[in-house]
Amino acid sequence: MSTPSYQELTRGISRNLTALRSHNADVMHGFGALSKAAMAPGALDEKTKELIAMAIGVANRCDGCLGFHAKALVKLGATPEEFREMLGVAVYMGGGPSLMYAANAQAAYDEFARAAAA
């Protein structure tokens, strides 16, 4: 089984959300406001919050989460060391299934990092 392209996955999800944006506008606006409030810098900076979000995405085995949060973490300058340390905590909290998704999360991070470097 090959690893999906997380760039393609996130583009596809974004396209697929178009109908929800128009037909469930209130829900989408509410989710957007929740996201903006939750990720706003406070006692924790945005990168730390994205690392937490990625760890939860790994523990919950959410492929879309891996793509979107890997992209954000690369943009925010998360180092490979920070990323791998976060994966260790995610695996600790989620066990074997999270270990399998940690490998996918690493692939997502690497893919977005290569794209950013190009």
From TrEMBL:
Coiled coil: none annotated. Keywords: Oxidoreductase, Peroxidase. The keyword Lyase does not apply. PANTHER family: ALKYL HYDROPEROXIDE REDUCTASE AHPD, BLR3452 PROTEIN. SUPFAM superfamilies: AhpD-like (SSF69118). The lineage of its organism: Bacteria, Pseudomonadati, Pseudomonadota, Gammaproteobacteria, Lysobacterales. It holds the Pfam family CMD. InterPro entries: AhpD-like, AhpD_core, CMD-like. This is Alkylhydroperoxidase. One of its GO terms (molecular function) is peroxiredoxin activity. It comes from the Bacteria. Residues 26-105 form the Carboxymuconolactone decarboxylase-like domain. It comes from Pseudoxanthomonas broegbernensis.
